[in-house]
Amino acid sequence: MAVKFLKPLADASQFPTPSVTATPKFRLSDLDIAQHTKGDVRETIFTRNGRGAIGIAGTALRKENRKNVILIPAYHCPALVEPFIWLDYEIRFYPVRSDLSIDLNLLEKEISSGDVTHCVVVRYFGFGQNNNDVIQFLHSQPVEIIEDCAHSLFRFVDHFADSGKQVPDVSASICSINKILPTIDGGALYLKHKYEAELTHVGWVEEAKACAFIVGIPQRVAKIKALFKKTEVEPTQHNADPSEEDMHLRYFQPIDLASASYRHTKTIFCHSNLTDIRKQRRDNFEFIVKNIDNPEVGNALFQQLENEDIPYVIPFLLQDEKYFFDLRKKGIQILRWEEVAVSDCSVSQDYRSRLIQIPCHQQLSTSQLNFIVDTFNQLRP
């Protein structure tokens, strides 16, 4: 059955330039050249983006001379799904529960069909859910396990630092560097078996332009902003009938499969102080969740952090989707996954409009943290 993505519910052009951004910006002072990220980066493939890493994993793990059937959680970003569409996998969606954990009995039922070859496990927003149990279960099944750590860079790094002993080995693990660190590109991929293909770096001129942008040289910033503004003002038109768009890929491009990250992205990855970033993100999460007190508007999906949780954002469930627009108009870059695929999962179909992502990144100032809290608390039905 063809995958049918739902159309977006909003567009960035509807809102002012945010005063609180979803991700951190580059600061040279945040780098520590004397230290190096804990973990063996020799085992890491640095890709242009997370969807490129997913596509390479799908390519490397594809079964020859048989149908490739992959299970993907019904709650997702299209960028997770599109590489498998392009690679001609048969995609089946399995449901998530309201806390984004997985019902192992339902997952086992999906696999019992006997033709499933691959399964994706997503660590949503930097939280563990019951993923370790899911991976433990999948390890006993004849499937390739692809761990999506797009939001969980720290889990990805710890996989090497702890020699993979936290959970059984997976076939592949991916993360998106630029969701956590101040880079303008960057995916990272671990494959259990070596991937032989070479990825291509951009030329040094393009590398220099990217460095110029990341440090804020005005000419480059103006050029990039103009490009992004055009993309936002003139989004791809979506038809009311999703079936007319089955093969349209909004995010994935085949060139992603052959493209390495910028060279300086690896430098930032290796020399960022992850210990400090872990602590700051946890502290910001706890401050925001503790101080937002407006249950008529909604509540954080998770009220506390487990030891291994390092939040990418704070998932927050709104009572009414109208508050998303109120928050964006106030200048907070709230995100949500609007373009989930059509499925029988009632949670994912509901959460596309009501589950929002509140920034909690390491560069938020005290005034920004207070602004987030005050904005939520001042909302009225």
Detailed description of the structure:
It is a single chain. It is built from twelve helices and ten strands. It starts with 44 loop residues before the first strand and ends with a helix. The protein is globular and about 60 Å long. The chain has three domains: 156 residues, Aspartate Aminotransferase, domain 2 (3-Layer(aba) Sandwich), CATH 3.40.640.10; 49 residues, no CATH class; 100 residues, Aspartate Aminotransferase, domain 1, CATH 3.90.1150.10. The longest helix has 18 residues. Helix 5 links the parallel strand 5 and strand 6. It is an alpha/beta fold and 381 residues long.
SSE order and pairing:
Elements: E1 45-47, H1 50-61, E2 69-73, H2 78-86, E3 90-94, H3 104-111, E4 118-122, H4 131-138, E5 144-148, H5 153-161, E6 172-176, E7 187-191, H6 204-214, H7 218-233, H8 263-271, H9 274-291, E8 298-300, E9 313-318, H10 322-329, H11 346-354, E10 355-359, H12 366-378
